[in-house]
Specification:
mainly beta; 9 strands; single chain; 1 helix
């Protein structure tokens, strides 16, 4: 199988600094990825029910993200960042012998919080928390005849991390992270 991939990302955003220790940002980005598969040879007869491994010819993924961010610096050694993202993803497939189809749509609401404290000039500690409300819808889950058996996917989750870092010099730092 020959495989080619084309990926690109476009970003536009703006920042506003209403006060010395407060900034607000808004951003939009679009990320697209196209994967093409050229199956030079396939040892499986793909005319029956078993159409793998050379079944997919193209896989396209488009992601649109809009996010808002607020950064507060109540003290010179303390920074807090709150962020909200809304993401919408569209996934399209083209399979062997079939036309292109919309395979899934994914929507996510992401709430993030980060707190960074630098007690000394070369040391920093950071705590992060993310909460994600994520759902995936497919054409099959929207079909009334099939929806009792195929449901939309709810992929809600949260994660946290803690980081400690030490700046050795202007070009070198050591960091330990726990997730």
């Amino acid at each position: 199988t020959d495989f080619s991939r084309f990926q690109h990302k476009y970003t536009a955003g703006a920042n506003w600094y209403p006060m010395q220790r407060l900034s607000v940002g808004a951003q939009y980005y679009r990320k697209s990825r196209s994967n093409d598969f050229d199956h030079v040879s396939d040892s499986i007869d793909n005319t029956g029910l078993n159409r793998y491994p050379a079944y997919l010819n193209r896989y396209n993924f488009d992601l649109d993200d809009v996010n808002l961010r607020v950064t507060v610096r109540p003290h010179s050694s303390l920074t807090m960042v709150s962020r909200f993202d809304y993401q919408q993803s569209d996934i399209r497939l083209r399979a062997d012998g079939l036309s292109s189809l919309d395979a899934a749509e994914q929507n996510a609401y992401i709430i993030s919080q980060s707190v960074t404290w630098s007690p000394w000039s070369r040391v920093y500690l950071q705590g992060n928390f993310n909460y994600v409300l994520d759902d995936t819808t497919t054409p099959v889950s929207q079909d009334p005849a099939l929806s009792p058996w195929v449901q939309d996917a709810r992929n809600d989750y949260w994660n946290t991390s803690a980081i400690i870092g030490y700046l050795i010099d202007a070009r070198t730092e050591v960091e330990a992270q726990y997730q």
